[in-house]
Amino acid sequence: MAFGDYPAEYNPKVHGPYDPARFYGKADVPFGQVKLGEIGAWLGRRNKTPNAVAGAVSRAWWRWQHKYVFPKRAGIAPFFQLTVASMTFFYLINYTKLKHHRNYKYH
Amino acid sequence: MMTNLFSVFDPSAIFNFSLNWLSTFLGLLMIPSIYWLMPSRYNIMWNSILLTLHKEFKTLLGPSGHNGSTFIFISLFSLILFNNFMGLFPYIFTSTSHLTLTLSLALPLWLCFMLYGWINHTQHMFAHLVPQGTPAILMPFMVCIETISNIIRPGTLAVRLTANMIAGHLLLTLLGNTGPSMSYILVTFLLMAQIALLVLESAVAMIQSYVFAVLSTLYSSEVN
To answer: Name one GO cellular component term (chain A).
Structure first.
């Protein structure tokens, strides 16, 4: 599968027009229906190659845009969703530094 | 690691990788893309901003400006605006508070204008060293002053933006850090002051990106 190609599992004769929001690989139990004890095994079955991860992010982004950004009367929500997500991301990658801030009172 | 007032400007993140620079590209996620024929509110808003800027920069460039040369300044504006504005949210790194970024925007731009101007319009560039209406006795001094002012342009452009961003963030952190040792009544006032400052800084974020774009437009219109 080269860059920009359809996923290898996609077959236009079976699936019809290509939908960028859809996963064409072998269907697994949806995450919402996974029992707590099976989460480890479920995660173990995920395809974690860079290609697959990029594909998953791409599908999620597509779905998110269609739900929140593309509608004609889209509100301010997607902006704040992105902002909060970015804030969380930068908080997490800076946590090793930020955790020292609780010692400010001793400075 | 010792944290201090300036740790908000530290690009290094987990494992000492400079991952905080990633925030430079947050704007790419914010640009509304078009899918449906009918534009969404985001598209309408974004288009009207771009159109207004286009008209603004077109008049600044004057009749000698080439078609489409406003695009680079509009892109410059939006890049800086997204960086300035997103940097005001907690934990998000402000790339424009570093000369590394602002100077890498301003210096190549200025260098291109200079090379273009001096190679293609040498006479015109020399003429610019003496502004119209300068008394003859002041002309030698004006040449010196104009030369210096021309050479420091990339520096002033970059430092103006960086200093503004640093000043705003320092003010917010300094004031915010006094909170823990305050009484509850004073904290209410502190909160109000911080909100007012945040509004002010949002305005500064927009104004400074506009200033950067407008000045580079004017510099480009001077060389042809």
So the answer is: mitochondrion
